Amino acid sequence: MLQDVKDLTASGVMKGLNTQYNFLALQKDQSPNMMDVKINYDGSIEKRLGTTTQNTVTITGGSSSTLGFNPTTSGILTSFEAYWNLNQTSGDRSDQVGTSVLQSYNSVNYASGIKNQSALFVESSSQYLQAASSAIFSGNTNFSYSTWFFLNSTGGTVNRTLVAKRGTTSGSLDLFRPGDITTGLVGYWKFNNDATDSSSNGNNLTAVNTPTYVANGNYWKDEYIADLEDGSSQYYTLADASQTGLDITGSFTIATWIKRESADQHTIVAKGVTDTSGYRFYFSGTHNPVLTLAGTSVTSTETIATTGKHIHLAVTFDTVANVVNFYQDGNLLSSHSNSTDPTDNAEAFRIGSKSDAAAALWDGQLKDVAMWNVALTPIQIKSLAMGVDLTNMAYRPNNVSTQPTHWWKLNEISGNRADSVSTGPVTLTDNNSVLSSGGYIEGVGADFERANTESLEAADSAD
């Protein structure tokens, strides 16, 4: 597979890789018999490739054995078939989950890795690791595989590899999706060839002017995605009398995957009389995400001019903190103060149109539109964008055997920053309004402006 990665680089599939460890995820479904490749967490480099075989992964020509694996698996799922941390310095590499030992061929060495050591392969020496038993890779299965890798001119290193497979039938890989956050979930529309509500509220929508559904293999295997055309006045609606939980009057979250096909004012979700009551989440004609609450519009200071590409978009309103936060692909886009709550109203709930008129219609694709009556946390938003539950998967300071003396996550939007340790916590005082922007794990991180002499401070103490 090391050769496969090089082949992908040569063909232009992989470009702009970091000159350090990169993250590789492969996803394969038996039906359709296809392989997807994603590089790095943001998914910015991806490619759907051709046919794969049952027990060997083949990508644009190379054999998987040259990377040191012969799996038909890939990814991060709820349970693992195998996990090789590859931190042994020589010999066979043990499986931390199961019994699938990787046998070393031609003396696979080691180098420093993401956490400990990593397996080091020299291409000219034909070095690779291979599972002693193919049992976990055999059968007519869907699977997922992920790893960290580092390429150089002579070979490369591999570290922390996870393998999983799911069943013998085709279907969607087990991504982390809105249905996995049940607290406060009032509506969840997958748009998998229909407009049924996957929450417990039964808020099934009625399609107006027959929106189409298109097959999509980039993120949701064997599922469809709604494709609305504003020129055909297509949208979804639900009468006020038929809805449950969608008359929001406090905190809430709206999250969705979108693919815009044109630049104009386009509505994602709305309920209420425009500019008077309720709420509306939409794009302005100048590419700014906007949230209107009972007539008060909160406009993101950042624009999203991208069309023709799937992005994850979310907005949260916290009625206690009086803050509206916009997120793109799990990262904080902008944060705004707002003290106006949405109001109850008798208008229809709509996706893809204003609530009180067939206007400002959505033009493009929508998938996994979801709404909660709580403000989700930054790490929940990031998890939805990545398809992985980071609250369980992320390796952070508190996972180290020796607990940190102090740990500042810096996941607050503004103000003082809390210390996450339980013994002797020290709060960092905000000096001169340190704000936030997109972060690595939680989608939020402190953003310092040197020109404003911004800093976070703690008084001198014994520790």
Compact description:
The chain has three helices and 31 strands. It is mainly beta and 463 residues long. The protein is globular.
Question: What percent of residues adopt helix (DSSP H or I)?
Answer: under 10%
Q: What portion of residues belong to β-strands? A: 35-45%
The total of helices stands at: 3
Structural class: mainly beta
Largest sheet: 8 strands, antiparallel
Segments where pLDDT lies below 50 for 5+ residues?
A: 1-21, 27-79, 162-173
- Terminal CA distance: 49 Å
Oligomer: single chain
Q: Say how many strands there are.
A: 31
Report mean pLDDT, rounded to a whole number. Answer: 75
User: Could you say which overall geometry the principal axes of the C-alpha atoms support?
Assistant: globular
How large is the radius of gyration?
24 Å
Highlighted features:
463 residues, mainly beta, disordered N terminus
Task: Give me the secondary-structure topology.
Layout lengths: L1 H9 L11 E8 L4 E6 L5 E5 L8 E2 L2 E2 L18 E3 L17 E4 L3 E4 L4 E6 L5 E4 L10 E10 L3 E12 L18 E5 L16 E3 L3 E5 L6 E6 L6 E4 L13 E9 L5 E6 L7 E5 L5 E5 L2 E4 L11 E8 L4 E6 L2 E7 L11 E3 L12 E9 L5 H9 L3 H4 L35 E3 L3 E3 L7 E3 L7 E3 L6
Antiparallel strand pairs: 1-2, 1-11, 2-3, 4-5, 6-12, 7-10, 8-9, 9-12, 11-12, 13-27, 14-17, 15-16, 16-27, 17-26, 18-23, 18-27, 19-20, 19-26, 20-21, 21-22, 23-24, 24-25, 28-31, 29-30
